[in-house]
Specification:
By secondary structure, the protein is an alpha+beta fold. The protein has a single domain, classed as Alpha-Beta Plaits, CATH 3.30.70.330. The chain contains two helices and six strands; from the N terminus they run E-H-E-E-H-E-E-E. The protein has helices at residues 14-22, 52-62, and strands spanning 2-6, 27-34, 41-49, 66-67, 70-71, 73-76. A four-stranded antiparallel sheet has the order 2-3-1-6, with helices on one face.
Length: 90
């Protein structure tokens, strides 16, 4: 299951994120989203876990929990095509 993690501290690393979620089961992948221009964290990322039950337990335990001084938001990631697309005017 793919998990969305928001309100991440900008200094958190993918290894630290993996460590937090590994308490609940096997983590397949972590990805902190970075700005294309600056390379700095945008404050959110994704964690992919092998087992859905473990992922659900991690979501329940870690949602609204502290991580390096910030309260993180944790929930099931939505598929890309279900997100709202924004149109920009030129």
């Amino acid at each position: 299951m793919k998990i969305y993690v928001g309100n991440l501290p900008y200094a958190v690393t993918e290894d630290e994120l993996k460590e937090s979620f590994s308490e609940f089961g096997e983590v397949l992948n972590t990805n902190i989203v970075a700005d294309n221009f600056t390379g700095k964290s945008k404050g959110y990322g994704f964690v992919e876990m092998l087992d859905d039950a473990d992922a659900s337990n991690a979501i329940q335990a870690l949602d609204e929990s502290p991580l390096k001084g910030r309260t993180i938001i944790v929930n099931r990631a939505r598929p890309r095509n279900s997100r709202i697309r924004r149109r920009y005017r030129h």
